[in-house]
Each structure stands twice: as structure tokens, then as C-alpha cells.
Amino acid sequence: MSMIVRRLSRAATAGLVAAAALTAAAHSAEAADTLGSAAAGQGRYFGTAVAASHLGESDYAATLDREFSSVTPENEMKWDATEPSRGSFTFTSADRIVDHAQSQGMDVRGHTLVWHSQLPSWVSPLGAQDLRTAMNAHINGLMGHYKGEIHSWDVVNEAFQDGGSGARRSSPFQDKLGDGFIEEAFRTARAADPAAKLCYNDYNTDGVNAKSNAVYDMVKDFKSRGVPIDCVGFQSHFNSNSPVPSDYRHNLQRFADLGVDVQITELDIEGSGSAQAADYTKVVEACLAVSRCTGMTVWGVTDKYSWRSGGTPLLFDGDYNEKPAYGAVLSALGGSGGSGGPGDPGDPGDPGDGASCTATYTRTADWSSGYNGQVTITAGAEPISSWTATVTLPAQQSVSSLWNGTPTWSGNVMTVRPSWNGTLAAGASTSFGFTAAKNGSDAAPTVGTCTAS
Ligand code: G3I
């Protein structure tokens, strides 16, 4: 009963949703100065994972609303969240995200219908026939509730084992229903919401390897037999142990050549500074080079809420400042400028439009255990009233003091704003300085993009 009421009320808001989407489209036609609008200029979406519990935080919501054109609920659509006891569906948190997204004209990716993890405890003990019935009922319940509102669903998630075997992963579904559970889930999903793109989603399948070969063979088989599959999601969780593969683009292309869309679904890259920015550039360029790569989603808005927060893998730091990786993604998408973080000073027509700055670093003193660094901020062709610069230190180093600036920290990334010296005439300079302990590393810090307002 509650599901029927909810569906009717979702349909009744359709006019509002369409109006919001038009507003977003109008904004993106004005200037490609955000991730979403720049990606739209390339015919792609740029999304993020979202947690309902953070939507009430104003900087979180402002950054989300300004930058992204698609959202994926990070946990709220999973089986344990939506059907904690059999036949009893709970959509409160997921609805909050979907409603928020629709009010901002954003699309929604559905994540995820059938997955071995985050299963409520009642699922695993079921016998084979009962499990089949429960799986199909879960797909129908979730997809029915959001019918017509989800652009792509991760129908089955992570069904293949890691390592070199290319085998299916052991799970209640695999162990009791055999290989055919994936096909059955896709057929049920197609009937439940014919408008949604149906995706298979996995990790460590980003390059050509035994696991991606096994997924490739499955997709090829599905396409040859008419099993409904529309896309493959590449999670793309990268770090030094699992770097962006050199054959990433080739791998995306070979899947696209099977006649499916490809999507980058959970992108995050541990690291900082220019190295992290360069890796993000590789990913965006790979997607743009594959015409059937329809969009990218990063796995969170801010480093502080990332599932890998220690690795600072996202585009905004814990204070919602744009990291060098943000500028790299925006530029790879063909965008320009940037908003400078909370407060949205980059909106067309706002005071401060055209404000820009550069930041350059020099070492002004050096001794065996430490050094003094100086960063010079120079205003561009217009006067500025404030600036923000990021400095990424080698992991071992630590800063003991800083002058003529106000720092905040996220891991080894120092974001510095003015103390007294924010206002600069066109072309004028100021500088801040700091003392760092080398702790065994004499490497130079990296200075990221300077933003001004
Ligand atoms: O909300 C509860 C909180 O009330 C409780 O106090 C706390 C205690 O541990 O747990 C909180 O729930 C956690 C939840 O994230 C929300 O933060 C769960 O323990 C934790 O397991 C859960 O982790 C999620 C993980 O999937 C679970 O497998 C991550 O947020 C989420 O980012 C991650 O996402 C997965 C994708 O779905 C699939 N691909 C891999 C990706 C990363 O692991």
C-alpha cells in the first residue's frame, strides 16, 4: 500500500522535476564552469555517490548541487537498507536522495539490486527456489518503486572472483542458483522498468585481465542470446597497488564494441597534488575517447566522507576546497574556471567573475633537517578580494609554522587562504611562508591551482 501511495506521489511531482531539469540545462548552456556542465558539453553525465545523512550539511549540499549532474546512493538502495525483512520495503533514505536529485535536475543511478554484500540476514539461509523468488521480488519491489526515475541500474554487482581464475564469486545466489542467476536478474529487471539501462558492475575489471575477460565473455554471450544488458560499469577504485591501467581505454572500447554502453561508476584515486590530478585526467580522457562511455561517477563528494578517507581519493578536500584533481577533471572535460569552493563565486554574473591568480613556490632557506618555503600569489588581469592555494607536501614532511596565511589540513594537503593579505590589485603579488621538517625527505612540495574571487 505505501509503495502505491509513493508511486503516485512520485508521478505527481514529474512536472516539477522537468522544470528543474530545464533550469539545470539552461545553466549548463551558459558556461562550462562545473563538472556537470562541462561533462554535458561532451554529451556525458558527471555524477557522485551521495549519502542521505550528509544532505543536511550546507557545504555538502551546495557542492553537490553546483557540480554534479547525476547521483548514486552510496548505501541507501542496497538490499539491507531497502528490504531489511522479507517483503517489507523501506525507501525513506533512498527517497530522500532521489527527491533531492530531482529537485536539482540531476539523474539517478540505482545501486544495486543483487550483490553478495550488505545482504540482510534472512536472505542467505533460503533454499534455492525460495531464494530465486526472493531475488525476483526484491528486483520488482525496488525497481517498481522507482520506475521511470533511474537512468541506469546496477542489476548485478561484483559476481566474479578476484585473482586469475575468472571464476564466479561464491555467494548465496551463485552457490544455490548457479551461473544463471545473473541472466535471470537481468530478465526480471527489464520487465520491471523497461526504460532503465541495465548494467553489470564490478571492480578490478578496469584493464584487460582474467576477471575482465570473464565479464567480457558473459556480456558477449548475453548479447548473442538476447539477454537484456545495456551497460557495463567499471568501478575504478585506484591506488598505488591498483593504478589506472595503461590499457584502460582499450578495455572500455572492447566492451563498447560488444554493443553495450560503458560507465565509470565508482571512481576514486588515492593520492594528492599533481600526481593524483594526472591520474584523474587519464580516466576522463579514456572515457571521452570511447563514444559509448556515457558518464562518470566519483565515489563521494569530499575526502572526509570517502570509504577510503585516509587516501584522500576525491576531488574536494574535507573543507570542500577544489583539489588539483578537480581542476584537472574540469579541464579534461573542456571546462574552465571553477567555483572556488563554498559560496559559488564562479557563477556567471557574480562579483569576482574573471578573478584569477597564480601560485609559485620557492625554497627560501634550507638546512639538514628542514627548510623554509614561500608561495607567491599573483592576481590575474582583475583585482581580487581573496585567494586559495593548495600545497601538497611529501608524506614524511610536516609543517611547524606558517605566516601571512591561514592553513587548513587534509592529510598532507595544506589549503592556505589569506590572513590579512586577500586583497590584491590586478597583477599584484603577496606571499605566505612556512617552515617544514624534512623527516628524511628533501623533495619539494607541489603547489596546486590558485583560485581567486
Ligand atoms: O550507518 C552505520 C552507522 O550507523 C554505524 O554506526 C556504523 C558502524 O560501523 O556503520 C555505518 O554503516 C556503514 C556504512 O558504510 C555507512 O557509512 C557500514 O558499517 C559500512 O560497511 C558501509 O560501507 C560501505 C561499503 O560499500 C559496504 O560494502 C561504504 O559506505 C560504501 O562506500 C561501499 O561502497 C562499495 C560499493 O557499494 C560497491 N563497490 C565497492 C564500494 C566500496 O567498498
From TrEMBL:
Residues 336-355 are annotated as: Disordered. Keywords: Carbohydrate metabolism, Glycosidase, Hydrolase, Polysaccharide degradation, Signal, Xylan degradation. The keyword Transcription regulation does not apply. Residues 350-453 form the CBM2 domain. Residues 336-352 have a biased composition (Gly residues). InterPro entries: CBD2, CBM2/CBM3_carb-bd_dom_sf, CBM2_carb-bd_dom_sf, CBM2_CS, GH, GH10, GH10_AS, GH10_dom. The active site is at 266 (nucleophile). One of its GO terms (biological process) is xylan catabolic process. It catalyses: Endohydrolysis of (1->4)-beta-D-xylosidic linkages in xylans. Residues 29-332 form the GH10 domain. Its EC number is 3.2.1.8. It is an enzyme of class 3 (hydrolase). GO terms for molecular function: endo-1,4-beta-xylanase activity; polysaccharide binding. Belongs to the glycosyl hydrolase 10 (cellulase F) family. PANTHER family: BETA-XYLANASE (PTHR31490:SF88), GLYCOSYL HYDROLASE (PTHR31490). This is Beta-xylanase. It comes from Streptomyces lividans 1326.
